[in-house]
Amino acid sequence: MRGVPIPHDLPEESTNEAACFDEDIELGQYRRELLEWALDELLTRHTFVTLVLGCGVYGSGNLSQQSQLVMLRGHIGPCERIAKFLGVKVGKEVGMLRRAAAALAAIEDEVRDREESEEATGRNSWS
Question: How much is the pTM?
Fold first, then answer.
């Protein structure tokens, strides 16, 4: 998953490459944390697009006409600057986040399916 931004709020040991190979660390836990972070970032973007752009900039009705955001209609640059200021991912980062979230979710589904099939058969393929 080259190009996927590393979340800044992960514990320090999770971004340390040496820690990733330590036997005591649960890699599945980090994968789930990274998936949760990516989904949170995408939800933040959805909220920005829905509320700020949808209701303020491109909204219709009396309320949006009173908003100063209406002046940004048709101007992509200022909207991106506002998004970046608020910490909302834009541009290529959004695409990378979507692909990373999809890949991590697929891995989680595969691991979950494997664990369920092992429990059903009573075997463990790791031993």
Answer: 0.63
Domain-wise residue ranges, the chain: 27-116
Rounded Cα–Cα distance for residues 90 and 56 (Å): 18
pLDDT at position 81 is: 83
Position 101 confidence tier, pLDDT thresholds 50, 70, 90: very high
